[in-house]
Amino acid sequence: MNIEVLQHFIKVYEKKSVNSAAKELFITPQGLSKTIKQLEMDLEAELFTRGPRGMEATECGELLHARARHICYLVEDIKKEISIISGKKGVLNVVISYSAMTIMPVDIVYRFTELNPEITLKLREVPDEYPIESMLEEEVDVGLIVGDGADIIDCEYELIGHGEVVVVVSNEHQLAQKDEVSLWELNKETLVIKAPVKGKENVFVEKCLEFGFTPNVKHEFGNVLTAHRLCQLQGLVAISNDFTENSLQNECIKVLKLKEKIPQNVYLITRKRGMQSNTVLSFQTYIREMSQSL
Question: Are 147 and 79 in contact (CB under 8 A)?
Answer without folding.
Answer: no
